[in-house]
Amino acid sequence: LESANKAIKEDGNNLKAHFRRAQANIGLSEYETAKSDLQRALAIDANSKEVRDELTKLNDLIRKENQKSK
């Protein structure tokens, strides 16, 4: 997480750093923060299949968590 934060601070358009930070935040159950990073990554490269797939998985995970809490 720290290395991704550093890379983003140096270059706010670093796709890989936003993606890696999102993955780290998913692991920490920080889903909204992860979603924000993935959306930023998509803004950098809208054609990234890897980012789109991860965002789809995250949205499914958020939906399941919301259903659990009802």
If you had to describe this structure to a student in words, what would you say it looks like?
With about 70 residues, this protein is mostly helical. About 80% of the residues lie in helices and about 0% in strands. It is built from four helices and no strands. The protein starts with a helix and ends with a helix. The mean pLDDT is about 95. The longest helix is centred in the last third of the chain and has 20 residues, at about 50-70.
Q: Which whole number gives the mean pLDDT? A: 96
End-to-end Cα distance: 31 Å
Number of DSSP E strands: 0
Please state the oligomeric state of the protein chains shown.
single chain
- How big a fraction of the residues is strand? under 5%
Which percent bin holds the helix content? over 70%
Low-pLDDT stretches are: none
Tell me the radius of gyration.
Answer: 12 Å
How would you describe the shape?
globular
The largest β sheet comes out as: none
Total helical segments: 4
Question: Which structural class do you get from the secondary structure elements?
Answer: mainly alpha
